[in-house]
Automatic annotation (TrEMBL):
Protein name according to UniProt: Cation transport protein
Keyword Chloroplast found: no
Membrane topology according to the record: Multi-pass membrane protein
Lineage: Bacteria, Bacillati, Bacillota, Clostridia, Eubacteriales
Alphabetized UniProt keyword annotations: Cell membrane, Ion transport, Membrane, Transmembrane, Transmembrane helix, Transport
Domain of life according to the entry: Bacteria
TM ranges: 20-43, 49-71, 83-107, 137-157, 164-184, 204-225, 246-265, 312-345, 365-385, 423-445
Gene source species: Anaeromassilibacillus senegalensis
Amino acid sequence: MIELQESFSLFKRLKSVPPVRLIVVSFFVVIMIGTTLLTLPITSRSGQFTAVIDALFTATSATCVTGLVTFDTWTHWNVFGQVVIILLIQTGGLGVITFTTGFTLLARRKLGLRELQLASENTSGDTMDVYQLVRTILIFTFSSELIGAAVLALRFVPKFGAHGIWISVFTAISAFCNAGFDILGFEKPDNSLIGYANDPLVCIPVALLIIVGGLGFIVIHNIYYAKLFPSLKKKKRLPLNLHSRVAICMTVALLVIGTVGFLAFEWNNTLEGKNFFQKLLVSFFQSTSARTAGFASVDIASEHDITKLLTVILMFIGAAPAGTGGGIKVTTFVVLVATVVSVMFGKEDTTLNHRRIEKGTVYRALSITTVSMLVVFFATGVILATNDHPISAIDALFEATSAFGTVGLTASLTPTLNWISKFVLSLTMFIGRVGPISLALAIAIKRARNKGAILPEGKIVVG
């Protein structure tokens, strides 16, 4: 009887926990499970225990779909270890709550109000259409990964036989989830996709999977029900909402800017020796990957500092909300730019495309960006301060931004870092995956404290 009362009390306390906290805890639990498994000898190729800090770093990187690794994935982990990593990537990419809620829906089980609230907050959707949204997420995810794996198999199966199927599946899931992990280290360790830089049959499918995964499930959902579904039913197509238009336009703009910038800066450097179309393909792939994927088709360490700086900017901005990518998100960046422009033109409110953006959204964008910059600067400082060997400031900033933006690109710095930097980068990856979401939701949930109180006005001179 006492045990039953304690269980009921625990369940009651769990139901009172804010959903945003449960989402953060769910990621933490998955990381801890992954860390435990990856520490065991059964996951390593050598059959020996893996250091806890390296297992933690890898599990965090996989769950937070980052791609930074302390050693080559194929060289260190056996097939079971690779399966653990890809499951962490899939779970982290979809989001733990979305994943579990989606299978509940597919099993035709009824969701309670609590589950609806969790799924809605984890997908940034409305509770009224969360059923459709989660179904869209799962069906679209698995369909995209299956198609991507099938296309990649056209290259890998003829080359590697049956093992090419596993490589194709692993790469497709990693690409769609914007993770950047690869298992091609048996060709050359830590080489990512550099060996396939000139191969459109590999680079283009991987790039498209990255773009689609990073575009955000809200945009995919909107495109389907506003454009594709009406066309199938021979009905009038609806206009896309403002969020989708901003996300798509900004994604295209950043891809073009990144491609042109990389092409110009690296023309006679990492792109030397390639023809124009190969240079264009590599530049497009690197621009795409910098948006939070982490695959590399060139040696990042050999890039010019100006190219690394451009990549840092792209990594920090990241992908669209409610997708598999990271960063502060393209919509956050657009709101900030729109706010600056509105202030410069003397407007009282932030306006975008003849629409007024609510002040709460502007405040959240400012808060997310500010906290994100502080996290990146802190991680950069730790890397520079705690490692004995010389590290350039741009490489340290590159590594920290890559971790926060859950990108995974590295200037060959990760394996050389000490345990302090690895731990801080693990924390940075975790914050980058759940922090901005948690911060936005925490600010959005207003507590009714002193609601009727009138505070005196404070004046501060700025600028």
